[in-house]
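From the shared-data thread, chain only:
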Amino acid sequence: MKAILEYYLPEDEDAYNAARNGYAYLAIINGLRDTLHDKIKYNPPKSKEANAILDELWEKLFSLASEEGVILW
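Structure, as tokens:
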């Protein structure tokens, strides 16, 4: 299978840069996921409020990814 994306630059520069950097964006988001996972599982905060914030961020990250059809590693 082959996919060819065409952009008209400079008009489509934002879309072009998003497509060109897509893998980097995914790697950054997965790095954040790993950081949240490690903090929640291996070094949870002592404060219930801080722990609740981490849990909320975890859920929000996966909710946003799911809405966009992105599968996090």
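The chain has a mean pLDDT of 93.
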